[in-house]
Amino acid sequence: MDSNRVIVFDTTLRDGEQTPGVNLNLSEKLEIAKQLELLGVDIIEAGFPAASNGDFQAVQGVASAVKCSVAALCRCVRTDIDRGWEAVKEAKKPRLHLFLATSEIHMKYKLKLSPDAVFEQAVQCVRYAKTLCEDIEFSCEDASRTDPEFLYKVLEGVIDAGATTVNIPDTVGYKIPNEFGNLIAEIIKNVPNISRAVVSVHCHNDLGLAVGNTLAALQNGARQMETTVNGIGERAGNCSVEEVIMALTTRKDILQLNHNIDTSAIFRTSKRISKLTGVPINVCKPIVGDNAFAHESGIHQHGVLTNPLTYEIMTPQSVGKQESTLVLGKLSGRHAFSAHLKNLGYDLSREKIDEAFAQFKELADKKKRITDEDLEAIVLNNTANVPEVYKLENFELRTSANNLSEISISVKCGDQIISTTLSENGPITTTYEALEKITDGKWELASYDIRAIPEGDDALGEVIVRLRKNDKLYTGQSVSHNIIEASILAYLDSVNRALTDTDEKQII
Ligand code: KIV
Ligand code: ZN
After folding, report:
1. Where does ligand 1 bind, in terms of residues with CB under 6 Å?
2. Hey, is 62 helix, strand or coil?
3. 345 & 264 share domain
4. What residues in the chain have per-residue pLDDT under 70?
5. What is the DSSP letter of 453?
6. Which domain holds residue 271?
């Protein structure tokens, strides 16, 4: 491979899924994997097979669904490695990703192992994994807080044992760019066999420096970066793929590095992953936030109208952000509808198109202008594939400024219709108390977010609800022209996810 080519290792489905409240089902994981492939990532880390049956199935499913490399994460123990290999072996390009902590604090308090024992365990496990799989990545967890001499020793040992990629995680997001860049330069200088492996970095964002640290590492010789879409992940998240890729693209004059990402697929990928994970995108987020290409001040607007380069260092089109266009009307037929979805990049089954088309017709009766954003909202609403234990039948809500709100609501559960009428303060509290009664569960409402998509007076309401049950968060969402309906559907989506969740992670 060209020595200036950066390998993009995407961990949205593994580290990204460790974001609190994110619980993706198999079909959502497959959808994300296919979208990541369209984006052009080189490697998809699809999960941690030993952690749960759900992760095992997801890795297996992704391995057979995509053509790019698929990695399975494993601790440095044989049972994990066997399970990881079982899950990933049918991939066109399988990779086993082993990790073991090497910092003093992790070895002493978490692993309770001496440095010598950690070294031995790392080398033995890489040697064993190599008997199963050609492509082996080894991560020194908490590498950035590891004694450098010990780090060099472990890296040399695992490369001798067969590791083809060595990953240097800034696990706790502690480093600052100059320091992290120097660490990578020192590794390249001090590990004698380093030329036999690709040097990778995996930066967390606790100090908001994940992108800066990743770029500094690339400038100092790293050639793989581990990233997630929208920067989701453990705690403050991981390095955002869209940010670091647009930095590489926009500042190629300085960085002189190449990648395989189709930048025009960035915006759609970001929105789709936000929708599927239920993690909203901050309006000010670089590249993909709603304000990333918006110009508020008159001086800026004037400048951009005269020449966009006055205030834009990249174009919205370069990341696939198009003007919201009027696309279809209420007389449009199913054929035009499905052809338009294909143009937007959605290849849906006949059944899913039927569901989305019915929803489109309903919306077209209520809303004057249907835009690409509306259509995407409808499609994403119809691709979740969560079994509907509870399904909304009908509701009627009466609410006014000074009186209690009253709701009558019917929900279907199997063959049964469950109905209730309830009065409380405020329409959402009333609705959610009624739903809690109907679904017979003690759900703690952890968060409720509502926003308009697209913005404007003819918008749809998108609701994201997080419910907590037994210390686990479940994220449900929905979009509707009627915000109370969206609130009900999002709540039921969350309940349905909780009730059908059989995936208890054992390890992380
Ligand atoms: O942050 C980290 O150290 C990790 C490793 C498993 C690569 O996620
Ligand atoms: Zn991580």
Report:
1. 15, 99, 139, 141, 167, 169, 171, 202, 204
2. helix
3. no
4. 323-327, 368-369, 381-384, 454-458, 506-508
5. E
6. 7-277
The Å distance, Cα 153 to ligand 1 centre, comes to 19
Q: Using CA atoms, how far apart are residues 86 and 57, in angstroms rounded to an integer?
A: 10
Q: How many separate domains does the chain show? A: 3
Predicted pLDDT of residue 326: 54
* Residues 30, 62 contacting (CB under 8 angstroms): yes
Note whether 67 and 134 are same-domain residues. Answer: yes
Report CA(171)–ligand 1 centroid distance (Å). Answer: 6
Q: How far is CA 196 from CA 94, 114, 181, 222, in A?
A: 19, 27, 20, 13
- pLDDT reported for residue 282: 92
Pocket residue to mutate for ligand 1, from 141, 166, 167, most atoms within 8 A of Cβ: 141
> Which two structure tokens, joined as six digits, stand for 432?
């959610």
Spacing, Cα 333 to ligand 1 middle (Å): 49
Q: Is residue 195 within 8 Å of residue 4, measured between CB atoms?
A: no
Q: Whole-model pTM?
A: 0.87
pLDDT value of residue 500:
87
pLDDT in the model for residue 172: 98
Outline where 230-369 has alpha helix (H).
Answer: 241-250, 252-255, 266-277, 298-306, 334-343, 350-366
Cβ-based neighbours of 294, under 8 Å, separated by 6 or more: none
Residue in 114, 112, 117, 118 with CA at minimum distance from that of residue 98? 118
Residue-level pLDDT at 415: 93
Write the residue with the smallest CA distance to atom 1 of ligand 1: 171
Residues facing 48 on adjacent strands: none
Q: Considering the domain boundaries, does residue 483 fall inside one?
A: yes
Same domain, 204 and 77: yes
User: Counting atoms of ligand 1 from 1, which one is nearest the CA of 99?
Assistant: 6
Residues 354 and 271 in one domain: no
**Could you tell me the distance, in angstroms and rounded to a whole number, from the CA of residue 169 to the centre of ligand 1?**
6
Which residue's C-alpha comes closest to atom 6 of ligand 1? 99
Domain boundary among 381, 404, 439: 381
User: What DSSP character marks residue 192?
Assistant: T
